[in-house]
Amino acid sequence: MRKSTKVIGAVGFVLFIAVVLFAVLGPFIIPYDAYKQSGPSFMAPNRDHWLGTNDMGQDILAELAEGARTSLTIGILTALFATIIGGSVGILAGYIGGWFEVVVMRVIDVVLTLPFLPLMIVIAVYMGPGIFTQIFVITLVMWAGKARQIRAQTLSIKTTGPVLAAKTMGANHLYIFKKHIFPSVFPLFIPQFVGAVNTAILLESSLSFLGMGNPLVKSWGSILYYANSRSAFLTEAWVWWIIPPGICIVMVVLAFSLMGYYLEEKVNPRLSSYALAPKRQKREVVEDLTQVERDIVLSVQNLTVEYPKKGLYQEVVSNVSFDLQRGDVLGIVGESGSGKSTVATSIIQQLKLPGRSRGSIYFEGQALETLDDEQIRQLRGKDIGYIAQAAMNAINPVITIDKQLKEAIKVHQKLDEAEMDKRVMEVMTQVGLDTKWRFAFSHELSGGMRQRVIIAMALINRPKLIIADEPTTGLDVIVQVEIVQLLRKLQRELNISMIFISHDLPAVLSVTDRLIIMKYGHIIDSGESIEVAENSSHPYTRRLVDSIPLLKPKKVREAVLSS
């Protein structure tokens, strides 16, 4: 969590404590009774009455202290009821689903569409003004929004792996709810409650100002109501009669807003990413490449990537350097979280926010960090093709394959329709996809066919470099082999440089010329693929090779060559 967020939360907490102390201790410290006359009417502030008196001679400071008790009590109770009711309904609707969820959501829709002010007036006329009426009306208005938000979170949790695993092992609903659903959802109740207090106090003040509160009980809203009805605006009394309760309302709302902001980020740390996201800026080239280096299609030098954690930046990739020769295939192997995909996204300048990077990346002798956003956009998809993880899910389900392939062409080239048709059919043939599927939608294709479409999209503009980031993810074993063989075949035929990223060492060995082993964001081993697999002395590399069934070091070369 960012330091600034902690400061914001601390400021909100201090303001809240100040309001609570004023409400609790004020009536005992202030020497006047808020309900009794203690001076002349409309007395201006003085050393005896710091905020003056109202039209009945009652001390306004004493009224504020007494009103703080009422406003805070109504706000906290209303928020508690709304959060409990809304949270319970939301959890049940999200978990049970079916007709129950449909009915609940329609009720929520009706409640959210009801006009607030007419509803308050009707209920107040029926029930009569008072604190109970305020609590009931505000709770009735607020619970639906809480239910909708909690339901959405419950829906996402009940489809997670742990919940599905618990169901498959025969766990009953009560067990799943107690062990998985409620513990995951409950942290959201806290910021929801704090935000509800904020809203409830504002609504209570509004209702009291409209005369729907208890006329015999002091609250900040009722103070404003009487000030307005007794023509305080027509005299200078408005300065000490209207401004102080307004400041109190603003202060308590600000306190709960700041605390809510802190708690939201505490529950969901990803919210800080948007505030911390650095804008990509061009950097000056620190050194020129030699002529030999210019013959290298891609050169990564001292690449370091950092992400914020608890107010500080933590390195996830540290000083990664490698070169890729034209026409070669470089493999990057490592376990999940080793930094493989982070390196790939850094190359195409698509690092996930709020990450930041330093170091140098040269593509055909051009330092990418010196290019502006438009120049980088022209490189992506044209000179550098990218096949993302689980890429088959990236196909737009509502337009045909033909349109998506042509869309990739239109972004970078100006070809007429006939030329685009020719290019689409050519690349589909190259990836082994029958051209009859041009006008199909993604749901009409198998997983392997969709993966071939994504490969076709990466090749459609004839790039010089392909980055394949775990291109076989989610495919069955047979299709994985076909995709790997297809990539190697296309790379050789088109003489494209390629970076092949995977945690599947046998697949990487069958495709690549050179190999990099990554762990914890560092390159721990590198060299020619066969040499690394057979002769590496690094213990981590040896464990990777030894874990491959039937591919002991002596048989690695034979297995790779045969593939």
From TrEMBL:
Chain ranges of the ABC transporter domain: 298-545
Major localization listed first in the record, in broad terms: membrane
InterPro entries in the record: AAA+_ATPase, ABC_Ni/Peptide_Import, ABC_transporter-like_ATP-bd, ABC_transporter-like_CS, MetI-like, MetI-like_sf, P-loop_NTPase
Topology of this chain in the membrane: Multi-pass membrane protein; Peripheral membrane protein
Transmembrane residue ranges: 7-30, 74-96, 103-125, 131-148, 181-203, 238-263
Highest taxon, organism lineage: Bacteria
ABC transmembrane type-1 domain segment(s): 68-260
Keywords per UniProt: ATP-binding, Cell membrane, Membrane, Nucleotide-binding, Transmembrane, Transmembrane helix, Transport
GO biological process: transmembrane transport
This protein's GO CC annotations: plasma membrane
Gene3D superfamilies per the UniProt record, alphabetical: MetI-like, P-loop containing nucleotide triphosphate hydrolases
GO terms assigned for molecular function: ATP binding; ATP hydrolysis activity
Signal peptide coordinates: none
Localization, UniProt: Cell membrane; Membrane
PANTHER family listed in its UniProt record: DIPEPTIDE TRANSPORT ATP-BINDING PROTEIN DPPD, OLIGOPEPTIDE TRANSPORT ATP-BINDING PROTEIN APPD
Family (UniProt): Belongs to the binding-protein-dependent transport system permease family. Belongs to the ABC transporter superfamily.
Protein name stated in the entry: Peptide/nickel transport system permease protein
